[in-house]
Amino acid sequence: MSVIIILLIASLFIALLFLAAFVRSVRNGQFEDDYSPPRRILFDDEALPAIDPDKNPTNQ
Amino acid sequence: MVFQLLDHSGLCTYYRLNDHPGINRRIGVRKDKFAFLDDPKVAAGLIAFQNDTETHVQFYAPQIHCSSCLYLLEQLHRLDPGIISSRVDFAAKQVRLIFDPRRTSLRAAAELLTSIGYEPHISLRDWDAPRSKPSSGLLFQLGIAGFCFANSMLISFPEYLGLDLSEPSIQRVFRYLNFLVSLPVVLYCARPFYASAWKGLRHRFLNIDAPIVLAIGVTFVRSVWEVFSGQGSGYFDSMSGIVFLMLAGRVLQDRTYRNLSFDRDYRSYFPVAVTVLVRNETTGEDGETIKTMADIRTGDTLRIYSGELIPADGILTRGKALIDYSFVTGESLPVDKQMGELLYAGGRQTGAAIEMLVVREVAQSYLTQLWNRKDKNDRTSKTEGDFSFVHPLSRYFTYIVLAVAAAAAFYWSTHDPARVWNSVTAVLIVACPCALFLSSTFTNGNLLRILGRNHFYLRNAETIERVAVSNHIVFDKTGTLTEAGRQELFYTGDELTPKQQASVAILAAQSHHPLSKTLSRHLNAGRMNAGRSPEVQHFQEIPGKGVEGIISHERIALGSLAFLTGESKDKGKGTRIYVAIDRKLLGFYSTSNRYREGLPDLACKVKKYATLSVLSGDNAREEDQVQELLGRDTVLLFDQTPVGKSRYIQHLQRIGKKVMMIGDGLNDAGALQQSDIGIALTEDSNNFTPASDAILRADGLGRLPDFIRLCRAGKRIILASFILSIVYNLVGLAFAVSGALSPLVAAILMPSSSLTILLVTYGSSNGVARWLRL
Question: Measured between CA atoms, how close is A19 to chain B, in angstroms?
Fold first, then answer.
């Protein structure tokens, strides 16, 4: 029956891993904004057109 | 213009993402508006992090509203190569920028945002505390409590099933592990309850958290004693479970409100810096510099541009001031001020740029004093839990539990002293008010969520109870009963021919006075394609009096009675624009505010719960109209100062009324604080509102009676579920005493009773909401 103690420690350890993952996700701010990330992933990365340095867009 | 900019940088995806991206830019922005960001001192207050190659800054841009905004704002580096990256926090409507200070500047970044339509809102408050981050402590606590609860259940299970009796050593290991797992719960997760209970005790007040802390403490001590003396396994699992559920309730409540700010003071409205004129001693010319608000001293000359807020009390020294004080006084029309007159802080200049000499510093201005006065009142009028219905209940509850425990202790000390300890702890554990607490947090949390869905945001759960008990409702008029910025004109007098009306409209369009603008808008409504308009000849405008000119051979004059006829006294009520054609007085336009729709219905429904009054900073010209809308029994008071409003509320409270105040402007701030529940009305939930207990979006005003009914129902739900849980506990206790309850059944009953209460509160509050169609 003493094998149950090893099992218990193993299960606690796995649970601790999940807790650590949760703490990390809170730290990263994953629970702060639930609107932008799911949309951000949908934006395609397009090829950047070269920006003409003579016509700085901020001057318009 | 925005399109060209985007097209140029290949960002047209912006237009493909949504059907109607962007909002029209309504107001042009002055060229040097962000010049103050060049000042190193101002910039230092806003920048979160800076080194030679990177500067981190966060802007609040209230215009963010859709996924296109998100796309555009995160592509800023394509518009300005100096920007390294930009991230949007959609919920907080913030843009976090990282830029290279060698290639671009803070000012350039702000101007870039403005040029694509996201003008950052930079207020004095950001400047004072730009780095405050929302605390995620509660989430950690919830996570850890969940972890401990689940593992503690797992570890306790063999004990309940009686599997380990054969091997005492394994049993001991399980019990010690259970103890270890419960330590973080007691030492860390339950902290919010300790803090709240301690706060209550310091104010000599037993709040709901006090018996909870007592129960947690007693359960823990007793369990520790049982485990270490080898007598039993303790109640670590139940204790962790309760803490977990209660924390879950709190987190739920908090999340609804993350991005609403209820505690605002004047600093949220004020700009960070203003333009100051400095006389160059050698040349004698005036030059502009930028000063932060804190550096403004008496004697400085400020230049206020159109649309800017007057930050300090001062005397007008140059230009013609047309100040919109609606924010401070509730007066709906801008006020003309001549040179030499005193300007109070808080007004917004609507005309051209003016100059003013500061006579009182920002900290001593009239406006600031208004806020400070209210701060003092705040502490006395709203001590914690004055109104709460759970709190007095919990106080009695605590006393009763303590009395029962004492009685049990007394009884056993005379009969069988060995059982004192057991019986006392048993009473305290069984009588834990978790049920009461759970039912109130979950009912209130759910109500807050339902109300939030209807754009009625309450500051906290106690506010629900205050809404439920309020029996007098005070409305502000301007901006609350009337629609902000909408005015209607009525014509009285000899009928004007369409041609005459057109002429009047053309003449009015020539003037920049707000009344003329309203008039020309009113007359031009539905007549957009009028073709070529005749020219105005001999146009002249006499400031503060009126305008005249000749249009298609008719001499038309608009303005005050004194201007048109020379008669000095205008006996009419309110603001009137008289019309004369060829020197013959034909009639007048009178202005009137546009009232929100459905007011009579609202008044009629709300009167079932409360009496009504209306306070207005405006004059009494619309008295009859308001009286008709809200019914004869409504008290109307006009010409109220901000201080007068809050006195009136004090007076109501003294005669025993629980006052709900609904207002919108800064002029109501004092009254909102003084009242038992202050509701700030706003056209858009991200607008700035005065400090209040609740924020209501203007289009939800008509639902107010339903909100009140829901809050009242909430009180009954809490009471019902509380009684239910007491019955539950009593039955359980009876079984336990008679010894008929096996540990396994008890272990199942304990969490299932909590779960039943959650389902009952959740289900019934949703049911009521559906019935009210909320």
Answer: 7
